[in-house]
């Protein structure tokens, strides 16, 4: 598994980029077909895998927004009832998540890039920047849905 692990000192609650180590994959474990060896090559995976990662991203963000958890999914922003600004703060730098495996290395403990794409799409939906739901009526994400505009939102499709 190709991975770059930072060695610089940073607060115990964050890695050097400010992402909480208990976010995303680290928070929920791999499971659900997200095996570590596959996470190292996130764009070489089949649509079902990429969609699984996408759906996790939607879930991870919405369970925070809905009040089911009290910390943001990426930076661990503490908020029992997050405001839009809390959501922006927690997802700032999400481009780094999305670029993993294409324009930057895959980082252990970070959510898969497709999860980042999904969180980004979910934020845009919450903002009313788009009326395309991040999950379609068949409970599919951008990588498996062929029924609507959602299919255009994943970079791999
Ligand atoms: Zn669909």
How much β-strand is present in the residues?
under 5%
Helix content range: 25-40%
> What is the radius of gyration computed over CA atoms, rounded to a whole number of angstroms?
15 Å
Give the termini distance in whole angstroms. Answer: 25 Å
DSSP helical segment count: 6
Layout of strands and helices, then pairs:
Blueprint: H1 24-28, H2 36-39, H3 47-65, H4 84-91, H5 94-98, H6 113-126
Helix pairs in contact: 3-6
Bound molecules: zinc ion.
Which features characterize this protein?
157 residues; mainly alpha; disordered N terminus; 35% helix; single chain; globular; binds zinc ion
Describe this structure as you would to a colleague.
- With 157 residues, this protein is mostly helical.
- The protein has helices at residues 24-28, 36-39, 47-65, 84-91, 94-98, 113-126.
- The radius of gyration is 15 Å and the shape is globular.
- The two termini are 25 Å apart.
- Mean pLDDT is 81; it is low at 1-12.
- The protein binds zinc ion.
- Zinc ion is lined by residues 136, 138, 140, 145, 147-148.
What would you say about this model in short?
By secondary structure, this protein is mainly α. It is built from 6 helices and no strands. The chain has one domain.
